[in-house]
Structures are given as C-alpha cells and as structure tokens.
Amino acid sequence: MMTFKVGLVGAGAFGIKHLLGFSKNPDCELISIASRTEEHAKIASEKFNIPKVYAGNDSWEKMIDSEKLDVVSICTPNYLHAPIILKAIEKNCHILCEKPIAISHEELEQIEPVLNAKNLIFFTSFQKRYNPIFNLVRSAIDEGILGKITSVRYFFSHYGPYKSWKALSEEKWFFDSEKAGGGVLLDLGVHCIDILQYLLGEYDKVNGINFNTSCINMDDEDNCNVLFRFK
Ligand SMILES: NC(=O)c1ccc[n+]([C@@H]2O[C@H](COP(=O)([O-])OP(=O)(O)OC[C@H]3O[C@@H](n4cnc5c(N)ncnc54)[C@H](OP(=O)(O)O)[C@@H]3O)[C@@H](O)[C@H]2O)c1
C-alpha cells in the first residue's frame, strides 16, 4: 500500500506534536525535517528517526525543492505559513498547516486561487472539532435535545506559549506583531470561531472589541470580546 512521504517544517513545540501523530500513522513515512536551528531539527530527527535534516532560514525551501514529498506539515511561526504553503502547492504537495493559515487577507487571496487550481488536500489544525465533547454538544443541538439555542458564551485564554506549552524557538516570535501577525483574536479567536461555526452554522453579524491590558509586553491585543449573531 502507498505511504505518504511527509516533510515537516518547524521542529518546535507543535512540530513535535505533529511528528508524534505522523509517527503513529502507518500510512505516513517521515522523510525529512526542516528547522531554523540545526540542533532543534536534529533532536527531532533523532527522536523520530527522520533520515534527512535541513537547517537555516531557507531550510523549508531547500527541503521542498529537494525531496519528493507528498505532504508538507507546517509548524513555523505564523508569518512563514503563507510562503511555505505557496511553495508546497507549487510542488504539488498536500498540506497540513498550523493555524492561523495566514496573517493577512492578501495572503489568503494569494493562496486560494492557486490551491483551487490543483487537486490537493489542504488541512489546518482546527483540532478542537475532533474533541468528543464538541461532537456530543453538536449531536445534542442537532437532535433538538438542547432546544432552541439563544445564546452561547465561549471563553478561551492561555498564559502565552512560553508558560503554557513551552514554544521552543529563541526567536520569541509569538509577541512580535510582525511575526505573529496579530494578538489573541488571531491566536485563540480562530479556534472559537471554528467551533461556533461547527456547532451553530454561519453567522451574519459580528461586532466586538480588541484591547490591550498590557499584562504582557506586546503591541497587539491581549484581550478580545466578540459578539456573533448566527443566521
Ligand atoms: N493548533 C493549536 O492549537 C496550536 C497551539 C499552539 C501553536 N500552534 C501554532 O503552531 C505554530 C508553531 O508554534 P509553536 O508553539 O510550535 O512555536 P515554536 O516552538 O517557536 O516553533 C516554531 C518552529 O519553527 C521554526 N522556524 C522558525 N523559522 C523557521 C524557518 N525560516 N525555517 C524553518 N523553521 C523555522 C523554529 O525553529 P528554531 O527553533 O530553530 O527557531 C521553531 O522550531 C504556530 O503557527 C502556532 O500558531 C497551534
């Protein structure tokens, strides 16, 4: 049976989680890893028996050009998602990209037509959809057990990557506006919006407020309240 040849970019905290998943999947073969710091790439390659290692800022480009990959898994800081996606599409690779897919609307507009022109699978990490609790809630809504839903409150927060899940890179990109591309709305809001759509369908009105409480040293919002009206 055919196995998918996988190359992963970004040997950080979430890269390791992707590697754990791929290494348990008999349909996948981990071929190569690319990361900015050679030591980080090597630690991951040794742990998961990945034969080829690429290091440096252009490691992802070299890897995608040199290896015959079926799948590219993208676990880099946010600002690199779109360029790596575009390169992977050019080389006809299926893509698993960490959220957020891009850091601007312009980037999404660049990705959409080239992706749609090819028969590739593109998947982003909205893993909460696979949490059994949300499946249960959706069944309860669909079966009418909860009656008419008039209001939902969804709270989501964390202490930042360096305390919450030990993001690895010394680049410390997460609180850097240009590299992260935004604050809490982009980081956590995308998960909330995905789950609300999964449970309730499409919304037609939205308003909200972003603010920075200055609890952490960052330019973007560290707090956000959003109100959606669902159709
Ligand atoms: N789905 C979720 O719930 C969830 C949760 C957390 C994070 N994420 C997402 O996962 C992504 C990674 O976050 P993280 O927490 O894993 O960060 P991280 O630990 O800092 O990992 C980022 C990795 O990317 C590598 N990298 C940076 N520039 C690179 C380049 N030019 N070429 C190749 N590799 C490069 C870094 O290498 P060095 O170590 O050498 O600097 C680092 O290993 C982000 O997009 C984040 O939003 C998703």
TrEMBL record:
Fetch the Pfam families from UniProt.
GFO_IDH_MocA, GFO_IDH_MocA_C3
Keyword Electron transport found: no
Protein's UniProt keywords contain Oxidoreductase: yes
The record ties this protein, via Gene3D superfamilies, to: Dihydrodipicolinate Reductase, domain 2, NAD(P)-binding Rossmann-like Domain
Keywords associated with the record? Oxidoreductase
Q: Which residues form the GFO/IDH/MocA-like oxidoreductase domain?
A: 135-231
Location of the Gfo/Idh/MocA-like oxidoreductase N-terminal domain: 4-123
Q: Name one GO molecular function term.
A: oxidoreductase activity
| This protein's name | Gfo/Idh/MocA-like oxidoreductase N-terminal domain-containing protein
Q: Which organism is it from?
A: marine sediment metagenome
